[in-house]
Amino acid sequence: MQFLGISLIFVIYLSCVSGLYFHIAETERKCFIEEIPDETMVIGNYKVQLYDPRTGGFMPSSPGIGMHVEVKDPDDKVVLSRVYSSEGRFTFTSHTPGEHIICLYSNSTKWFSGTQLRVHLDIHVGEQTMDYAGIAQKEKLTELQLRVRQLLAQVDQINKEQNYQRIREERFRQTSESTNQRVLWWSLTQTAILLVMGAWQMRHLKKFFEAKKLV
């Protein structure tokens, strides 16, 4: 399948995207960029609605339409590539810190008939993916124990974010040092070229004046 256009939507770092929806046409895909620390869970909930030209609106449900979800890590390796139903969730865990690209597109064009799809999407990252109500019920935790569990998860997530920020700072420092070294060597090269050209011109002029017996 060939894609006519790719739209990139930048999502705020480690935030929950609440109430976000977008439209896609035939052979079009939408991609999101998430900056994610390593060993962090990401959950995306989505719902696809097909445009109904008879009513001028979108159908409440669109059975039969599949949604292809593809996730790539900062090394351009495919973390997730799977076809889901018209409504559901996808989950993956990051293993490399950095920008992850999350792309969604329909797995078929026969349902479109030149119309559009509306896709509702919520992305939860890290500690936001925890179902504390379910955990409390399953492990029979008291309110205090549940609160402690939440605090521990938040501390762990903050630690991961801090480690990721250190990695970003180190990458930026290496890039800055590399750029400074290149600028220095380029300046030295220019200076050397100017000195060589100046010496050559002086020698050439000297020979010219000697040939004219002016010196």
TrEMBL record:
It is a single-pass type I membrane protein. One of its GO terms (cellular component) is membrane. Its main location: membrane. It comes from the Eukaryota. Keywords: Developmental protein, Membrane, Signal, Transmembrane, Transmembrane helix. It is found in: Membrane. Belongs to the EMP24/GP25L family. PANTHER family: TRANSMEMBRANE EMP24 DOMAIN-CONTAINING PROTEIN. This is Transmembrane emp24 domain-containing protein eca. The lineage of its organism: Eukaryota, Metazoa, Ecdysozoa, Arthropoda, Crustacea.
